[in-house]
Amino acid sequence: MEDWIVTASALERGVWTLRLEGGATPPKIEVSHAHRAIPGVKIGTDDGAVTVTAELPREVLSDGLQSVHAVDKSSGITLASLHVAAGRIVARDMTAELSLLRAELELLKKAFRRHLSDS
């Protein structure tokens, strides 16, 4: 098995670009969203590196957390993932997480103060 490593990843104007290095034979790459292959993925080689360019569908910009994966089809290994969080649902989730973190911090502060006063 060849070890392809993602050395660069960029998302600009809805186009996800990856640069992979380290293997000898270019991998067969599929980029997918919601378990469906994204059509029109371009794969090129340059000085031993592989460049993958995928124009993301509009469905990626939807409420919630959307994931896009670049997978080596021959081995089934996920080479890279892109996660896009958007919408009101995410804002509520983040607010709830922040509240939980604040509550945990308060517990830690109380325990630390108790430890200091007992010492």
Protein topology:
Layout lengths: L4 E8 L2 E7 L7 E5 L2 E2 L4 E5 L2 E7 L8 E9 L5 E9 L1 H31 L1
Antiparallel strand pairs: 1-2, 2-6, 3-4, 3-7, 5-6, 7-8
Q: In what order do the strands lie side by side in the largest sheet?
A: 1-2-6-5
Choose one word for the global shape: elongated
Mean pLDDT over the residues: 91
Helices and strands: which structural class? Answer: alpha+beta
Q: Estimate what percentage of residues fall within beta strands.
A: 35-45%
Helix and strand pattern: EEEEEEEEH
The end-to-end distance, rounded to whole angstroms, is 56 Å
Poorly predicted parts: none
Largest sheet: 4 strands, antiparallel
Number of helices: 1
Total beta strand runs: 8
Q: How would you characterize the overall build of this protein?
A:
This protein is 26% helix and 44% strand. The chain has 119 residues and is of the alpha+beta class. The strands form 2 sheets. Strands 1-2-6-5 form a 4-stranded antiparallel β-sheet, with no helix packed on it. Strand 3 (29-33) and strand 4 (36-37) form a beta hairpin. The protein is elongated. The protein starts with a strand and ends with a helix.
What are the key terms here?
alpha+beta, 119 residues, elongated, 8 strands, 1 helix, 4-stranded antiparallel sheet
Quickly describe the structure.
With 119 residues, the chain is an alpha+beta fold. The chain is built from 1 helix and 8 strands.
